[in-house]
């Protein structure tokens, strides 16, 4: 989950990392604590980059505050309703740096990225310095300092190194996959301040952390989903909607992506991708069918493809679920079905009888090889092979 | 570079951690039916009991002799700790099935396994199958999808590994081993490490790698391909996946151009791998490569 800037900075503040003074802007008025601030910066809390260029971060005078907020809402359109606005004290910045930490899955460590020119310049400047960290190693700040020394004056290099070592600890404590501070401001007095922060928390670890502290981030993530995607999430599986003409029901990420590819190779395109979701029900076949049938009811969707591999779960159960569903919900478009079942999944199962029952229930084709199944579908639909 | 112990000799003393859940119990039954020598299940609080004739113990420490392989059906929150326990017990092969293991837990566990010299598969793995008489099943790669031979299949996705093993078997191409490395961003050993190990495996004549979008493991693999004397055929799924959407696995998200299937395939091709658009095309290439 990508955290909003406000929630990300609140997290950093809890760990003693310096961030600007800030508050969420109320609908009316200027909060008393902001009255004495040296300057005001208003920032729309959308979880995306390039906000400055889009006019979603602005230096404002107190009397312009709400007009600026309204202008940002107008820029955001329908998305604006779910977005909060962070009001911060402007800081006397003398220099901007770029500092990020990310999980490097291949090197199996935390990778530090640093550039001496931060802010928007980081996209145009030289490639950042990269350093693989062992966050548990003693003397981490010294290791980082040795790498930064050639890029920054000694004392500043030491400050940044100490901060980076602390942030590596924050990464672990907070189950973050990414912690990017850009810009990391060097103030006129030489101290460091995280002017902006992009934090991504590992979804697998969400249960370990206080959900209330990331409520706005969760709401934004939810708002970005389509209604069907939200429904899928609530019913225990992941749905990715795509502009396509075949509603695809599959299980397993790799097999699902293979089917998406095979459809495209045959001049068709998947309108959906499905996978399991953490904490979901053990059996979501019926919910997946409902989602696919809802997609298939749309005019641009021409067919439904249902394919699954069963290594040990009984194939008979899956077919019974499908037949029971079809008895209640006739397929709105031609339905193509395939199963790859291991013998242990097919024990005591009469494949010929099942095929007959599926045909009787309106299944257009039953083919157990994914390529042959997609090929048959493309031929039936008159799609042109790529 | 070390070699996974199970490629040198089949494991003889296998334990299963948390074997009593519905899914785990079914996999334990499949493994036993396949001849896997499971000594005991480790289930805290169930010690002294039995699971379909399999003795249950409270702790690894209660084994009379150390295990040489472990299959973990421990829930994700406990998987990191369970892996580290196995590493500390000197277990050479560890298969960690759980999906949704927090990535920082996986990092710590992968380090511990590596330092102990253990080969960790997963987290988020179906394990592996070495097909044939005297073969081995650790996990859920159904032996019925496999047939003995000389191609080692390395897969990042469980369902795709199963589907591809089945396609290989149908095409008459036997497998030395079918190995699901794990679908997460952090897995015990990366594809390039497996390739280096397979260089030392005389029973492997060729390698089929099935990868997916997201992450950068294929770039390290490409470097290893250049130094690998046997043929490598590689395919990457997700050629038509949308950018910035997570396609199931925690790592399967195109966050940058270099994480696309096209770029990964190009890198592997440039390094000397036979790049294939689909597993079907990969199998056609293998058929030609292995023709007598």
Automatic annotation (TrEMBL), chain B:
Pfam family, one: CoA_binding
Coiled coil location: none
Record has rRNA-binding as a keyword: no
Gene3D superfamilies in the cross-refs: NAD(P)-binding Rossmann-like Domain, Succinyl-CoA synthetase domains
Database matches in InterPro entries: Cit_synth/succinyl-CoA_lig_AS (IPR017440), CoA-bd (IPR003781), CoA_lig_alpha (IPR005810), NAD(P)-bd_dom_sf (IPR036291), SUCC_ACL_C (IPR005811), Succinyl-CoA_synth-like (IPR016102)
Keyword list, A-Z: Ligase, Nucleotide-binding, Tricarboxylic acid cycle
CoA-binding domain boundaries: 7-101
Name this polypeptide is given: CoA-binding protein
Organism, scientific name: Muricoccus vinaceus
